[in-house]
Write a structure and sequence with these properties.
251 residues; 7 strands; 14% strand
Length: 251
């Protein structure tokens, strides 16, 4: 199924899509004089949306997905480092080209550091799932070269999903017997990525980054915010992705 369709369906299932649909349905039923049913659905949608916007809810859900940080001792025997791409900034005004976004930069920072520490070659992966001129892999490779002074040995720029990242990376690395890899991606994304890479044939050493904040909880975290909604959506997106991949047998 094309990614454009699966992403659109996911947007309707996840907040704010689903609770807004419940509120709209409740309003429609109330207008059709089914006031009690409409009120219940509207209140349910509002309650779900309110909870989804709370920072304490979003952060807690994200932390449930996050594995522990990588232990250096686990890197022994690894033959390559794989850094997964993230959403790019297309046609960035200050650079006049597609560039790596904030999440991708966090992954690159750890990948470059691990490459310097271990001496292992880097593979960067990611295509153009949302269009653009440069692939995710291409923007990662350019940033590694120009900003981190750590060139990538391989660039995979055709994949559109995490499962394709894994399959195409295996096709590149397996002929050189580099199937034990250090996998770098966001901590919230690591569980799904690790499942797909193991399914593809890799022996994975997880090196997650961009963890949710471990700071103190403040009053604002108990109030609705865009950041809280984003964290909730990120966590539920990954949970939905894991379920979808398992149903399809690719994780």
């Amino acid at each position: 199924m094309p990614r454009e369709i699966t992403d659109a369906v996911a947007s309707l299932i996840l907040p704010p899509g689903a609770p807004l649909l419940l509120i709209a349905l409740g309003a429609l039923l109330a207008w059709r004089r089914r006031i009690r049913t409409g009120a219940v659905l509207g209140a349910l949608g509002f309650a779900i949306l309110w909870l989804a916007c709370l920072g304490v809810v979003g952060t807690s859900l994200v932390r449930m997905l996050e594995p522990p940080p990588a232990a250096p001792a686990a890197f022994q025997g690894a033959r390559a480092i794989v850094v997964l791409g993230a959403r790019r900034i297309q046609d960035s005004p200050e650079y006049a080209e597609d560039v790596v976004g904030p999440e991708g930069l966090a992954r690159l920072r750890l990948g470059a550091r691990l490459a310097r520490q271990t001496g292992l070659p880097l593979l960067v992966a990611g295509g153009k799932p949302y269009g653009g001129r440069l692939s995710e892999g291409g923007t990662l490779a350019r940033a590694l070269e120009e900003d981190f002074r750590t060139p990538a040995r391989w660039v995979e720029g055709e994949s559109r999903t995490t499962a394709e990242n894994a399959a195409r990376a295996f096709a590149i690395l397996q002929p050189e017997a580099r199937t034990r890899v250090i996998l770098v991606t966001s901590a919230s994304h690591m569980r799904r990525a690790e499942l797909t890479f193991r399914k593809a044939g890799f022996e994975v050493v997880a090196a997650p980054t961009a963890f949710a904040s471990r700071g103190e909880t403040h009053l604002a975290d108990w109030l609705p915010s865009a950041g809280g909604l984003a964290a909730t959506r990120t966590a539920l997106w990954e949970i939905l992705g894991i379920v979808w991949y398992r149903l399809r047998g690719i994780a």
